[in-house]
Amino acid sequence: MRSLSRILLVGAIAALSFTLPVQADQTDPNGSSSQPEPGWSLWRPNSDIQNADFTAGFSNIEFGGFLDFENSCAEALGTPKEKTPYWFRVSNLVNQIGTGTAEYGCWKNGQFVTTHSSTAVSTKLGDVTCLRVNVPTGKGLRIRSEAELKAKVIGFVRNGETVQLESSPALIMQADGRNWVAIRSPVEGWVSNDRPDTSGNLGLCR
Questions:
Q1: Hey, how many other C-beta atoms are within 10 angstroms of the C-beta on 175?
Q2: Per-chain mean pLDDT for the chain
Q3: Which CATH topology does 130-204 take?
């Protein structure tokens, strides 16, 4: 089984590629249109986080990173840490396949002054270990040896068939503009869940 450090790599990549909403304003990162970025929920104030149906921070590294984020935000806003407002959003993957990314942002004067990203897991879907293939524009999914389009094809799963996740939370990597999910059966490898702004190629085993 691949190590947790590779899961953390996803969060690190997300943190480095953190993008700001195009139409944000001084008080709200969603802007006047209140439209989420493709692949994401709207930004919500941290006062809503208890009702957001996800949990995050699955390692000491991720939890420590969040504490650093809270401290940096409190310093930037000049407020006590326990009273510091911040914003959060989750990727659509959290509801699609049970695991995705949570992003936290400290909003000041129309921009994020500090951010943090971590693995997020849905609390309403239970322990997701099985996903069903449903490719909208094809007959199924190629299983590849690595998380990239140039990697060797080592298997194939047809629409309607299922794959077993390699780990829980799921191990997800971003490459070639796609989300790749690690699986352990029918063979160990990677399958593409398509681009972040799509409905994906995988769904829950229901």
A1: 16
A2: 88
A3: SH3 type barrels. (2.30.30)
Are 109 and 137 in contact by the 8 Å Cβ rule? The answer is: no
Residues of the chain by 3-state class (helix, strand, coil), percent to 5: 20, 35, 45
The pLDDT tens digits for 42-75 are: 999 999 999 999 999 888 899 999 999 999 999 9
Q: Whose structure tokens read 């969060």?
A: 11
Beta bridge partners of 45: 87
Give the mean model confidence (pLDDT) for residues 128-147: 96
Query: What radius of gyration, in Å, describes the C-alpha atoms of the chain?
Result: 18
**What ranges do the domains of the chain cover?**
4-122, 130-204
Strands 54-56 and 44-45: unpaired
Greater confidence, 20 or 132? 132
- Of 94, 92, 104, 18, nearest to 62 by C-alpha is 104
Structural contact between residues 200 and 138, judged by C-beta atoms closer than 8 angstroms: no
Rounding to the nearest 10 degrees, give the CA dihedral for residues 109, 85, 120, 48: -120
CA 1, CA 113: separation in Å to the nearest integer? 37
Distance of CA 70 to the CA centre of its chain: 20
Residue recorded with tokens 């590779």? 6
| Angstrom distance (rounded) from CA 158 to CA 7 | 27
